Amino acid sequence: MLLTRTTPALPLGLLRSRGVLTEVADRHLAFTEEEYRTLLRLCGHDPHQLGDTATPVASTHGWSAAMRLLAEHHGDTRAAHQLMVLLDDYVRTEVLGALEPDQLALLSDLAALDALTPESAAGVSGRPDAWSRLSELASSGVPVRWLDAGTAELNPVLRRSLTARLTTGATPQDRQHGRRVVEWLRSSGQGLAAVERLLAEGEEEAAVTALGEELLPRLHSDTAVLDALLDQLSHRPDWRVAMMRGYLRLVHTRDTDPATALGTVEALLTGPGTRRSPLQRALLDAYRLQLDRCTNYRLGTAGPDTLGSEQAPAREPGETVRLQHVVTAALRSEQALWRLHHGELEAAHATARQAATLAGLAGVPWLQGRARATDSFALALLGEYRQARESAVAAFGTARDGGEGEQATVELAHLAESWMRMEGSDLTGARQHLERVTARPPRPDTTPLTVYLDVMLTALGDGREASDRVDAFRQGDPTLTPFQRSLITVAAFRADLLADRLAEAQEEVDLLEAIGFPNQQVVVDLARARILARAGREDEAVELLRPYLHERPSLSVRNAIGVMSTLTVAADRAGYADIAESARVRWHVASERVGLEVDRSRAARMMRRLLAAEVELSPAERHVLEHLDSDLLLATVAERLYISTNTLKTHLRHLYRKLGVNGRDAAVERARALGLL
């Protein structure tokens, strides 16, 4: 009946006796669409005005009796209605009429689900033997379609008839059945279907609670369904509904005003009966932090409450472990982002790791990806490049199969990759990852980071252009956290320094010191030392950085590489061999620990560029220097350069004098330090 592709499972004589069918095809075979179109033409319809013929065939599975009925009345909606009346009457009299009350009750329970398995049949009916009893009913003529050995579905007409007979929630038995269905749907991962069921039964309070558990896991994958469900709840003056609507709009509506969204929820929190459980308060804190982040923390919602205890919020009766994981992951993720944008990098790393673990337990891939991306950028800024890359790769893997929304959540991982590739002198790769972010619509919280990386990358090729980009960004008077302001100031300093604008670079250092960001003194001292070294005052640079050789507690890897690379070159030029060697050892140890090639690092390249300006070699001297960095004998070098041995010796004397060394090996080492090789 509607599902078979051969003989319809109902008495054809019954249809004839009621005057509905007067002729049935001899073999009762299912019609194809082409056969149906042929039938329409035989019934006198214009072959050029048949319209949609695929839908009737699909909806009736080509059942020949239905095809003939529809063909005779093609284009007349009354024919479809007449067919459904016929089928409903057949189900009521021929199928359900012969069943025992217990059998009818079982089918009514099973009609709640589209597809049935042994587990779901037992779950929604409360009968362990439901599956075997369904098999018995099917063998006695109840229309059931077996999709495979463990999956079946009731005939759609039968299901409609069964559900129409139900008096939803009218009796204790009905309510108990409704609870079983909802519990099964939620436990089997069909949370939104459970919400729809609750709304259909008028259980709005339970629907709001269930939807709160499903919102974040399905925020990017089921947007339309979430929106439709929230529309059905829009009449409720409920802060939870307003918050869920706000979450949805923040992600999918670009012109959403965070202040208005926050005000809407806050206004509903002041009414009577607004007691909130710890989990509800935690979700509200996460929402406030996200709204604040959308303004780059201009709203100022963060405080001891929103950034407080590291303990997971407690569950109350009726709240699931999954909800606890989801809410705690959302809160930890926003806390990690706040700490990242405020320069608390170690804390951001630890909190992001917690968020990623909880999101994984809750099965929320996009939230897990965002936490891993946050972790990767915090680690990159700390200089922990091995761990940062692991987190970035994990974030990309989480978002790989997702849509646009999931891809946007891992932007920080692209920024981390951009930073790490720049540090390793892979400037092309760094620019590619940066452009993956800048190609998307700008966000207030990530824009300062993209500007920072863009300026740093540009400065390596054109310091003046990089400086102009900083000026253009600052003219917009952006809202920045102190940490973001310090990053932009460092980028401006690097641009001015590499453009040989030492006075402007000094102004940026003074500004950096005035910002007064905690633990920023090492960055200030490093910047001042680089200006001194660039100005030829290496002794003063060494004096400024020398205390960091024995600094306790130890520097972060990133700062250690910057300080020790600068101190190595400055001390070497100033003649402090012991200091240079100690700094070189610490520089190499720090770089090797995080997988950074010393000779290719950005810090080394920058210092070489700054200190190599005074060493001007002729083209011939450069050719000689390049051949010194080999195992070739001097006589062989002279042959390859097509010069005499005496001419080669003359070039070597000039070369050694300019480099301030006395031999071949020392010349090669010195040239490497100065970036000439």
From TrEMBL:
This is HTH luxR-type domain-containing protein. It comes from the Bacteria. Residues 610-675 form the HTH luxR-type domain. Transmembrane segments: none annotated. Keywords: DNA-binding, Transcription, Transcription regulation. PROSITE patterns: HTH_LUXR_2 (PS50043). GO terms for molecular function: DNA binding. It comes from Desertihabitans brevis. The lineage of its organism: Bacteria, Bacillati, Actinomycetota, Actinomycetes, Propionibacteriales. InterPro entries: Sig_transdc_resp-reg_C-effctor, Tscrpt_reg_LuxR_C, WH-like_DNA-bd_sf, WHD_MalT. Coiled coil: none annotated. SUPFAM superfamilies: C-terminal effector domain of the bipartite response regulators (SSF46894). One of its GO terms (biological process) is regulation of DNA-templated transcription.
